[in-house]
Amino acid sequence: MLAVATATVACGHLAPARADEPPSSREAPPQLTEAELDSPQGAPAPLYGPPGQPAGAPAVPPTTREAIIDRAEKWTRAKVPYSMSGYWSDGYRQDCSGFVSMAWNLDRSEWTGSLTSVAERITKDQLEPGDILLFHNAKNPENGSHVTLFGGWTDSCRTRYTAYEQTRPATRKQATPYAYWTNSAQFLPYRYRGLAEGGGRHAGGYPGRETWRRLFS
User: Over 125-145, what HEC string results?
Assistant: First the structure.
């Protein structure tokens, strides 16, 4: 179960870091290259990527927040290489929207322009692990469009969060300023409509001691 944890950074001042906090919450923001911030994506595609786009609306299979994070962790540990045309061994496209499709256990790889068909808009205050932050640039989908998986707040001011994302060169997890490094105002929070447990079990937003011990041991 994802429990509430004490924040590392308090509003207005720094607080001592706790040993059970994720390492990324205690590190300075990385210097991201232009290539890392440029993440073009493929179009909606069936698993394993055979030719042709899938027809009809995507299915909304039930899942849980913990299962979403567990699936995201598998790609993070495997350091799945970024690719807008490649498909990983589980069948999902190796780009940002394929990563979220995998984490949400969808029956195909979606893109930033279609993930909202299986999600509902929420507010920043409602964000919980397993939700997403989505920017779809409708005028030029390959210019800035991106999606990250929300892993929990890293500070009590809710200015930084743990982001799971598929970007160059490979899947990563790191503390990220809300809502993102670039185009921040255009990243909007969404929640998967197939959550089996509903929306209130993990209020507070970030994993606690037992979860981090399991993930980093």
Answer: HHCCCCCEEEECCCCCCCCCC
